[in-house]
Fold this protein.
Amino acid sequence: MTIFSDIGRYLLMIKGMFSKPENGKMYWKEFMHQCAEIGVGSLGIVAIISVFIGAVSTIQTAYQLVSPIIPPSTIAQIVRDTVILEFAPTLVCIVLAGVAGSRIASELGNMRVSEQIDALEIMGINTKGYLVMPKIAAALLMIPLLVIIAMVLGIWGGRLAGAMANILSGNVYDRGLLENFVPYNVIFALIKSYVFAFIISSVPAFYGYFVQGGALEIGRASTKAVVVSCIAILFADYVLSALLL
Amino acid sequence: MIEVKNIQKRFGNRTVIQDVSTVMKAGQCNLIIGSSGSGKTVLMKCMVGLFEPDEGEVLYGGQNFTTMDSQAKTEIRKEIGMLFQGSALFDSLTVEQNVMFPLDMFTSWPVKKKQDRVNEVLNRVNLVEANRKYPAELSGGMKKRVALARAIVLNPKYLFCDEPNSGLDPQTSLVIDKLIKEITIEYNITTVVNTHDMNSVMEIGDYILYMYQGNKEWEGTNREIIFSKNQRLNDFIFASDFLKDAKDMRMLEETGRIPNHRNMDLLIDKDAPPVIPPSKDV
Ligand SMILES: Nc1ncnc2c1ncn2[C@@H]1O[C@H](COP(=O)(O)OP(=O)(O)OP(=O)(O)O)[C@@H](O)[C@H]1O
Ligand SMILES: [Mg+2]
């Protein structure tokens, strides 16, 4: 039963976000702050994982393609498509659910528990609008950008690993990248990343915003937020793939 | 003026506030007193709408706040300043930014004017040279004062203070009490203060509401409190012998008599020279 009331409260929270800002400048400032937190704050980890994912993809694809009939440039194609279709959007977003999601949940949870949210309410500020909306908006802007960066770095990582392990040279890899390229894949990946960005920001915001209790509950809420976000991402991934591919 | 009508608040099946009604006038300090857990904070939060009362309503200047739509509520809230029991400062902002926050949000003043106003209120709460510190770097009492500064920076029409001087030393406590009293009169604010500090009750309490286990047990002025026969109130307020003596002094000043409520023989030294009542300016 709580799941239905949670969904109801979640939807009400989303609805409550939309109201005229008390002061556009302050909302903009908060939005920029969140962009920096979510975007710049997660750039390092996103860069590291995407390079490694690309590298590992190349090596493992080469390991599985033993047939001499298949040209080595196919490896580049496979790496390109798996990185664009799945690894860059889904894996990066799962990691971001941990990094950015837990930060959002604990920030809001702390504000709730220490009555900072109440203090804002008393001033006559729509806290859903001022605290939650800029986080979601910032995620919608920054996470697709991070996914694009992850695509580029992942493919580059694959090229690097291919050359280092003598699997295929950079030239061959580059040629492979251009073979049978489907631009729609990138669009599909971006659609996914928008959906995931919304999940990563709104689900943790929900768990943080409605925390009850003390410091212990903040920790619980942020763990729960990450778990639920991850499940929601995988579920959405499945649904979108079934619908759009 | 704030009117509270038959407020009731339950958590689960536990009733925490039981049918409380009162009227809090502008230009005076309205105190809510009571022991820990008696429901002061909950009552205050019901008044400002942070808790939805299960029954009853709250009226601000005659307007029914409880049934208002959220937009009208927002308008009233812009006139409310509140100091939370736990201060509720924004951790990510410095002292100065905390106090400036309401100005940033609701005024379009130039930076210089905002800065001046911030310094002015920080001065009034006796807090200088902490402007660039973060809340985590402050003592509990300093946080309280920053929170008070933030609550009054926009010159509210209604000021709510949840235990403004718990955790403060007696001297600072007095400064804060005086400040609350001063601005209440100066700007004709309807001030509501939760406290268990008896000094505040005597110093600033124009009107006092005594809560006992979620019920309104007694209400009246701070002159009436001296003469009240309510046993629970007396046990609560004049808990120590020191306070009982203070009460007797007050009574003596007011009426020239001390009631025979304890064994005066113990207090009176028969061989001592006659007692000269203390003059006020000593
Ligand atoms: N959110 C809540 N959920 C459930 N019970 C609560 C909640 N807030 C307060 N209570 C209960 O309501 C009662 C009154 O609490 P309240 O905080 O109003 O006390 P108080 O008079 O302010 O005490 P103190 O002087 O210690 O601040 C307490 O018994 C408390 O357990
Ligand atoms: Mg309290």
